[in-house]
Write a structure and sequence with these properties.
about 200 residues, Hypothetical protein af1432, about 50% helix, elongated, OP_Dioxygenase, HD domain-containing protein
């Protein structure tokens, strides 16, 4: 049975008190620190969803991360590679934006830029087959992370549709995901979360 004494008392946020927020933060800290598990659960929704590709979306994600890992990329990069298409289930029209929103508090600006723009950069390989401008990414030519994003596509994302590739399982990446999503690097709530966790 839920303990009502462990709930905030307000019904209108403008009437909330410091005591209310201490109660809420006691719940929020462990919930937030377990975000990695919710990310993994959502990633599993890509399993079996082929969308016409040679491998399902989960395999593509795992294969992209596997290629990055085997190339010696650091864990943050590998997790970014793993999650770059996590938005496919919720944002078919803007999946890079979904992945970027999820990763934003936890990765560097460079990795955020790569994941946010990977769709346009990948488009160089197929937009012309859809009547779109394959050189759409040229609008970003000269940006400090243009070459890094191009490399992500060419080395990891683009070739990761191979049913014969020796792809690592999701379990291999779970510790990396759990570690990355435990504490945000950037968040409007970061200081409050750190203060509450220390008490």
């Amino acid at each position: 049975m839920d303990n009502q004494d462990d709930h905030a008392s307000f019904h209108d946020m403008s009437l909330s008190t410091q005591e209310d927020w201490q109660i809420i933060m006691r719940h929020n800290i462990p919930f937030a620190q377990n975000g990695g598990q919710r990310i993994l659960d959502h990633l599993k929704l890509l399993d079996g969803d082929f969308g016409g590709f040679a491998v399902d979306r989960l395999t593509h994600s795992l294969q992209t991360a596997t290629r990055a890992y085997r190339d010696g990329r650091d864990e943050d990069y590998v997790v970014m590679a793993l999650l770059h298409d996590i938005g496919d289930t919720l944002g078919a029209a803007n999946h890079p934006d979904i992945a970027a929103a999820i990763l934003k508090p936890f990765v560097s600006e460079k990795l955020l830029w790569i994941v946010q723009h990977h769709g346009i950069f990948q488009g160089h390989n197929f937009f012309h087959h859809l009547g779109l401008d394959r050189d759409m990414r040229e609008q970003f030519r000269g940006h400090e992370w243009f070459a890094d994003t191009e490399e992500f596509i060419d080395k990891y994302d683009c070739p990761a549709f191979d049913p014969e590739y020796d792809t690592l399982p999701l379990e291999f990446f779970e510790p990396m995901v759990m570690k990355l999503f435990k504490y945000p690097l950037n968040s409007i709530y970061k200081r409050a979360m750190e203060t509450e966790a220390a008490e």
